[in-house]
Amino acid sequence: MTVLVVGVPEGGELDRLRSRIQSNPHFQVISHAHEAAVALAHARVLLPDITVLALAGDLTVDAEALEVFRGVRALDPPGGVVLRTRGSVDRPELAGFAVDGAVHIVREGDVDGLMRALRSIGLRRASCDPDEMP
Description:
Layout: E1 2-6, H1 12-22, E2 28-33, H2 36-46, E3 50-55, H3 63-73, E4 80-85, E5 103-107, H4 111-127
Parallel strand pairs: 1-2, 1-3, 3-4, 4-5
Helix pairs in contact: 2-3
């Protein structure tokens, strides 16, 4: 599965995140972007299976993060998304964004949660036959 990382600046944090994701041979980070416009351009060209989107705050008021989220979900087929939040994963403003098997919310630093989310999205995408979709 291909992975696009968005919202994590260059440096140690990005290197650790990339290394953790790629520690599973089924996942390959194909690109990263810090700005929404660049992230959407990468997503449209590369069509990643999964986007890991780091949230600095509330997704409902962060226009750039919301633009990336909607843009990735609007691809055909829609990309899976892991929303990586600095705060609690039980925030009411994020509840409407989670989609079973397609969009997961994971606390920053929860590497086991991140890997569970990636596997869940990967399994869902691998088991879907696009020819059978309505």
